[in-house]
Give the backbone structure.
Amino acid sequence: MSPERAPILSVSKLVKRFGGFYALDGLSFHVSSGEILGLVGPNGSGKTTAINVISGLYAPDGGEVVLEGASIGGVASHKLVHRGINRTFQVPKPFLSLTVRQNVEVALAYGGAASAPAMADLLEEYRLAEVANRPAADLNNAQQKMLDLVRALTTRPRLLLLDELAAGLNPAELDWIAGRIKALAQSGMAIIVVEHLMGFIEHITDRVIVLNAGKEIFEGKLAVAVKVPQVIEVFLGGEHAA
Amino acid sequence: MPSALKHTLFIALPVLVIFAALPGVYQNHLLLFNFVIFLILAQGVNIIYGFTGYLPFGYVGFFGAGAYGFAVLVMHLHAPAIPAVLAAGLVGVVLGLLLTPLLRLSGAYFAIANLAASLAVLHLIANPALEQITRGPYGVSLSATFNPTYAYAAALVVLALTLGSVVFLKNSRSGLALQAVREDAVSASMAGVNVVRMRVIAWLASALVAGLAGGVYAWYVSVFYPDNVFSGEFSIFAIVFALFGGVASITGPIVGVVILYGIYNLIGFTTPQYFQLIYGLLIIGLVLFLPAGLVSLATRRGWHVP
């Protein structure tokens, strides 16, 4: 959390175009081990695109992504997994016809973690032990999200990207998952959280980046961000600006 | 007992033993041979479709290319049958390698492109300009290697190899990774799976199987035309048999071949109109009520079907 610590990931002047549309337009930020960084912004501001580029789903059209000193822009996802990046998906994407256990086994076998965490412990911890032998298709949305997370954690990431993990969880589940995310960060993991639930973001993040149209418009504490006229403007529209 | 051993002992081995013994008690050896060929092809479809989701509508392209690979080696190099069968498998793999760019496509696009590719190979081989090499559209006659008994035995060896591959896929982490890729390629890559490599391996394995089957088929029938060994019926039958029984399992394609090819031979020739009707109804019924194949009747009840 200390600013002098070398960042595990730094992104500089990142550009991602889809046709003529700039989803990312010169985005720069960094995140350090043990830190929880929030990415917030209105729909279409580039949050998920940023995560997709960092996790190797898209190659960047410009700028650089540097993980622990090495440039990783355009490196294939499975190689990034082996180098310590993993993520969850906004819409969870488990292997539906495989059992929960088999879902995790794939990541155990291919995730490249030197000492993968015990599957039984992870399933217990994320409340999936009772459904371990059921096909993932039988799980509800919240359980599928947890399976997505367990799949990611099985590869022992040092940088974890959470894309709207909290959306759709009930208040009790939200408190619980917030505790889990903080514990992961305390164990030394760097975590980037994309979320729309501002209370949740404020509760768990150390720092947020506010995005608009693929650019950073604010960096700092969320409590400060909500008082910045430019931030208020992009969230609420021009006429509400102070 | 590890499940791979169980599947070998109780599924693969009995099938092989039955088809090894049947020629002694049943006179229609060509029919038995065709059963073995379709068992191989249906399992080959199982490897690529059941484990990765690519539907190979042009699967016969590998089979026909294998048959002609065998023929060319026997005709021009006077190769003995067994090396020629191995070369047929190699021809299948090389064609598979040439067609790997098709794996960039998905769904119906892949199926159609694969069909087009198989037609392209047919018309290349059947081109009169290549008469010196392939005999073009005039067909080949391979009397030098003619030996149905050995060819039947070779077909059983290829079937053993194919069943062995499917047992391996069903019981190995590679097979699990392939199924993960089929379910969701993006999530599979985030589990650390090299998606492209896994797809290519499955694709080449199924091409190898069909190439070997084509070589063995050429050995057995010894006289054939391009239209015989590139007949779309091979692709369609192999796909329908595999789907009818249920893919991504070892038993599904076997059950599919035994039932559907059995019906085909019982009434397909004597009363083709009834056959068409029954076949059509069975397939409609399957698509509507059992899209995951006959084995899903059991899996739905929670029984494990290997």
